[in-house]
Amino acid sequence: xxxxxxxxxxxxxxxxxxxxxxxxxxxALGERPWCAACHEALPWNLLxxxxxxxxxxxxxxxxxxxxxxxxxxxxxxxRVPLRYEAEVSGLVQRFKFxxxxxxxxxxLALLEESLTASARAFPGALMGVxxxxxxxxxxxxxxxxWLARRLARRLGVPHRVAHxxxxxxxxxxxxxxxxxxxxxxxxxxxxxLPPRLVLLDxxxxxxxxxxxxxxxxxxxxxxxxxxxxxxxxxxxxx
Length: 238
Known about the structure:
The protein has 238 residues and is of the alpha/beta class. The protein is built from ten helices and ten strands. The strands form three sheets. It has a five-stranded parallel beta sheet with strand order 1-9-7-3-4, with helices on both faces. Helix 5 (101-114) packs across helix 8 (143-155). The two termini are 34 Å apart.
């Protein structure tokens, strides 16, 4: 979609339910699509691994998780503000499987709100985790690319695209090592990337997909890579 098309869709979304919380329909907090009470009640991912953002027990808060200690990911850090629970899981499912632009706009707003000034100044480019073209046709859109294009425009940075070489089998039910094997060599990155890159996806489970894409991006010139995702699955979730 062109930039003008994106602007038209986003403007239509802002007019859809003016001044109402997307979660409870109470008066919204300014121009944001939520009220203060619902925003506070969201499952925030405050205690998490600093590398992969996996939710951590309180005693381990701020420390790398066991998986990152055993095998550090190819990306440097992950910024994932929410846990994939409650209202957030519903938003992700409506966006991912039902192509709801309203749900996508709310997820993007929550992600964008969580970014510090230094985070916003970090990327030289943004890239979404690509779907295989066959999977994108089946769903009707590529949700990570949808997020990346909009956020790149808002931050004023280039949007770059990777390609999925093969339609990998579903990651559901696979353990970490099986997920890595399933994604080995799955991505191709054309051209040369800037030194600082941000990868976006809609939800993060083990991080295997983002790790595989980050490895391809490093081969294309990226030196420091951050991952930005709205939601992370809870500890030990399948």
